Amino acid sequence: MTLIKLDAIDSTNDYLKQLNREKWLENYTAVMAHEQTRGKGQMGNAWESEPGKNLTVSVLVKDLPTDMVSVYDFNVAVALACIALLAFYGIEKTNIKWPNDIMAENKKVGGILIENQFKSNGYYTSIVGFGLNLNQTDFEHLPQANSLTNITKQTYVIDEVAEKFVKLLKLHLLLFPERVTEAWFRYNELLFKRNKPSAFEAVSGRRFMGIIREVSKEGKLVVMLDDDSVVQFDLKEVKMLY
């Protein structure tokens, strides 16, 4: 496994994408940074992280066959690898907040950003960005966030956590095609606020109550509304308020 360590970079995802365009890279090449100046989150949101305290890593996953691992199947495998990483460090009360937040004890500790490049031969290449709050303790301006060190009272070696994440990611993707049904069941079982009344906001600004039932195979959030109707939302159509 190749792990490239940088002092500071605008975005590890962008750096790895550019590097992959410029030269041949082995599969599962990873880039991590001491500091990201323009870290990216889902839907263009900024990923804020205190320099030198947390994990910011991007991993190149090459030549995935679309007929074996669909795009949202891939998301499921990545999310479960993140949950497995937390379990490895003894954190069991975890959830996945759709579409790509990783929760521990009902607060956000990590986020995933997956960027795909599709090819005409039926394969695609993915850049998996993962940010995980490790040793940061102050979240005064982020009340819904937390870190592993706040939960466990331990300090983490960031390089070691990065290497463990890449190994778990590789393992989950290797095993996924033969464990699709089991993986999807586990993913939906871990959904944050599943089967509980929750507040949502549509892109129009309208707020409403609903109950999350599952995520569809196409990656849409399936919600039962107050009138018992069931609707599906794409990732840009709704957000959960909590």
Automatic annotation (TrEMBL):
Molecular function, one GO term: biotin--[biotin carboxyl-carrier protein] ligase activity
Domain BPL/LPL catalytic, chain residue ranges per copy: 1-177
Keywords, alphabetical: Ligase, Membrane, Transmembrane, Transmembrane helix
Top-rank taxon: Bacteria
Gene3D superfamilies found in the cross-reference section: Bira Bifunctional Protein, Domain 2
Transmembrane segments: 74-91
EC number, UniProt record: 6.3.4.15
PANTHER family from the UniProt entry: BIOTIN PROTEIN LIGASE (PTHR12835), BIOTIN--PROTEIN LIGASE (PTHR12835:SF5)
Name this polypeptide is given: Biotin--[acetyl-CoA-carboxylase] ligase
UniProt organism field: Flavobacterium sedimenticola
